[in-house]
Design goal:
- The chain is of the alpha/beta class and about 425 residues long.
- The protein folds into 2 domains: about 10-160; about 165-420, TIM Barrel, CATH 3.20.20.450.
- Helices cover about 40% and strands about 15% of the residues.
- The strands form 3 sheets. It has an 8-stranded mixed beta barrel, surrounded by 4 helices.
- Helix 6 (about 170-180) packs parallel to helix 8.
- It is globular, with a radius of gyration of 24 Å.
- The two termini are about 45 Å apart.
- Residues about 5, about 105-125 and about 155-165 have low confidence and may be disordered.
Amino acid sequence: MQESSARGEVERQLLAHVKHLERNYFEWQVVHLHLSQLQAHNRRHYQLKLAASEFDSLLRRLKSELFQLSNGDIFFFWHGGAVADVDPVVLRLRYLFSGDPLTRDLEADPDDGAELSYDHEAMQGSGRLCTWHDLSREYDSFRLGLEELLGTLAPSDAGTGAAGSLEPLDPARLGRIETSLATMDLSKLLRRQAVCAVLPHAAPQPLFSEVYVAIRELAQLLVPGVDLLGDTWLFQRLAASLDRRLLACLSKREEGTPAGPISLNLRLATLLSPDFLNFHHEYRQKGSGSVVVELQLIDIFAELGAYLFLREFLRERGYLVCIDGLHDLQLPLIDRKQLGADLVKLSWSPDLLDGVNEARRDRLRAAIKQTGFDRVILCRCDSAEAISWGQSMGIRLFQGYYLDSRLRAARPPAIAAARKAMRGPQAS
């Protein structure tokens, strides 16, 4: 597997591999994934690396090669295997990036009788996410097209994703961050965002606030110029450390920590740790407000047994459980009641306005009704149209920057000034 770590090197290796196949390209096939055309927030380093890792099992099982270019595109070559071997991996990637417009043209509507697959007869899928090639029939045209593509890649393309010129997190930097976290005052980096009930023609009513650590500000403070999300596994380690420090900060009632009902996005491993038990005794049992525990769907299904145990543990102690990070394609597949969750979060995207066909919108509306109109939180609402769309679907709970601005506008000036002062001179 060739990754995009060396600028220009992978491109040279890819071209050399294709030239080598000129002597025997019989039964070689290729799928080209156009990940460079994803939206910026879907092209972060860790997301592209995760996409490439989906092919690991095929690389072990088939005679194959994978090249990930400096712009994020993936070329996967395999010999002798069936298209059916590779198709499930591509479908998983389509699902992984389901919120991106790049995948819209590959979606099939079961109500239309279409199959969720590709044009394998022609082996030249017309979808924007990927293009299929059978080198036995089109080696020359593929090679010419590849040479043209590689000739257009500028050095600047090597810095993929929103991180741009930022350096990725590495073990040495992670160690320095964890050392600093052990003693620093984290309260100045705590942020909160309200989850509000919004009814037609009524002002937003805050119900509770999600409390989180400002990652970008933490990076600027401790490791300027470093993308903390640049390495998936190292960031997971950092996230676990932040979980522990966040719980400790709330338990000690450090100055600037929020009061009232809150929600915390935590990992299952954190909930199983002594840090959470200490938080429960110090924070919950001393009369503080209610707490919603948010869990990522991928975390739940990775350790379903642990989730089922923790769900009962939390509910017996008065916590609410929220499943976080659902997209519109996922919500119809999730049964909130069967999972024993109290709430779910559905991520808003502008594509929901015009990038979803009517049948799919109907399925989503039915899923929202089944989940409960007052049990779905539409998050990432950055505009009034997000609120209007959610209300048209029956949703009553919302979260996002648009509501933040509405709440700030309604806040008395003295309270706004006091809160800004508590967050320091750089607070916005």
